[in-house]
Amino acid sequence: MNLDVLRQQIDQLDQQIIVLLAERLAIVKAIADCKARVEDIQAYERLLPMLAARKVMAEAHQLDGDFVARLFEQIAQHAMTLQRERMAAGGKQPQPSEKPTVYSCSGCSSAAQLANDVAVSLDREGMATMSCIAGVGGDVKSLVRKATAGKPILAIDGCALACVRKSLQRHGVKPDAHVVLSELGVGKRQHQSYTSEESLRVRAQLIPVVQQLASTHGT
């Protein structure tokens, strides 16, 4: 078969995927509108078995189950962000009066990258403000000033080496909350990615911590 024809078939399939994503998004928005008051919009207790089911379905079709689960994790995270934004716009979800500052490990292991990715997502979703721990450890004045400004701080370390906590400690800063992912059962693997199950489990445990920091320091 001609290579151009095959590429056209790929393009057509991609278009179908985009249409399906748009249809899914419309349902996500409808779900948000149905939720008058939600304490846990993430609904991780539903997402974990959902991802496990998608993984089984993928493997039944001779696909990489972990890869497909990661794809659906990203789709689910995007959907939850849209739901949160839609509910906040309608006044159905309270906004934190003071966002915590979050610092994370960013090494090369799977645990370190999960710490960084979770911190980035907390920042992008407007739940916290991420700052640069490398700058704090490197004595960059503006970043040290931010770390010592007295705002609530969440430190996320990937492993027991606790590089984030120790970098803050150099400047006399003790985080209001310190989470070590290895203590949450996250493996520290070199040259590998974290799993979708690890990601959702960590997010499920960290989001209440962020919300508590915001509510405690915002009153």
TrEMBL record:
Query: What are the protein's UniProt keywords?
Result: Isomerase
Report the Pfam families cross-referenced here. CM_2, DGC
**Record-annotated Chorismate mutase domain positions:** 1-87
EC identifiers of the protein: 5.4.99.5
Which SUPFAM superfamilies does the entry link to?
Chorismate mutase II (SSF48600)
**Where are the coiled-coil regions?**
none
Say which enzyme class the record assigns.
isomerase
Output the Gene Ontology terms for molecular function.
chorismate mutase activity
Say if the entry is tagged with keyword Isomerase. Answer: yes
Q: Which domain of life is it from?
A: Bacteria
For the biological process aspect of GO, one term held by this record is: chorismate metabolic process
Identify the PANTHER family for this entry.
Answer: CHORISMATE MUTASE
Protein name according to UniProt: chorismate mutase
Q: Which organism is it from?
A: Permianibacter aggregans
| The organism's taxonomic lineage, starting at the top | Bacteria, Pseudomonadati, Pseudomonadota, Gammaproteobacteria, Pseudomonadales
